[in-house]
Amino acid sequence: MLSYIGVTGFGSRHQVKSVLRALPFGTNRKLMVGVLASHKTINGEKHRLPCRCPSELQMRSIFVDDPRVLNLVHFNTREPHLLYEQLMDVRGFAMTLCHGFQLNMVWPSPEAIKKVKAKWKECVIVLQAGADAFDVIGNDPKVLADKIEREYKGLIDHVLLDASRGLEKPLDAEVLRGYLRAITAKNLPIGLGVAGGLSPSTLGLVEPLIKEFPRVSIDAEGRLRDKGDHLNLPLTHDFVHKSLLLFREIEEDIPVV
């Protein structure tokens, strides 16, 4: 499966082009360009974090056409019964350069995802399994893996494990390891990803997981912002660069069988 280094919270095309300078052509990982959206922003309401959550008009001009990127809208809604209709609206706002969605919701409707896939076959779907989703399944890795296999097999392309609750809580490798192992044991055609308080200075938190799951994707957001909540471009460059070095070092250490 495609693996990526994710940065979430882009607010302009300039930011995307700037961060891409840290990603050489030919690398085996893409830059996941994450743009945040919600039922509020697509209805014209201003978000409390405007630097991270662009308006519908701004969203149209953020994504770039570049083979090194995976362009995803990270979407959440408090109107889950309207998920399909809202995702189709978002697709129209994000234009043709959008590759799909990350669903930042607690176990979104498989039927809605199925309808999206039927309408847009190439759509990439990342299911975020966060702390609230863990609570629903009793924080049991096997139950989570069973639920993904039973309800989302064939519908999602990646699952992103993130227990940070959007509060920049540091990633706990030992907790996430159990979930990654349980999903891997299912042998599903689904990419794995992790997130939680990642930045250039905290990549050591995820290193133990990368050693066991070298194709795992990672995603960062909160700790890449400046005091005004703008994307800190030098810090983000450093994050992408150091992530590439870490993945490369670990991949080179994996013995060839």
Descriptive labels:
alpha/beta; 257 residues; eight-stranded parallel barrel; globular
Note down, in words, how this protein is organized.
The protein contains 9 helices and 8 strands. It is of the alpha/beta class and 257 residues long. The longest helix has 21 residues, at 233-253. It is globular and about 45 Å long. The model has no long low-confidence stretch (mean pLDDT 93).
Rg (C-alpha, Å): 17 Å
Query: Mind describing the biggest β-sheet?
Result: 8 strands, parallel, barrel
User: How many DSSP H or I helices?
Assistant: 9
Q: Roughly what is the average pLDDT, rounded to an integer?
A: 93
H/E element order: EHEHEHEHEHHEHEHEH
- How many β-strand stretches? 8
Strand order of the largest sheet: 1-2-3-4-5-6-7-8
Please state the structural category.
alpha/beta
- Percent in helix: 25-40%
**Beta-strand proportion:** 15-25%
Give the oligomeric state of the chains in this entry, treating copies of one chain as homo and distinct chains as hetero: single chain
Terminal residue distance: 20 Å
Low-confidence stretches: none
Shape: globular
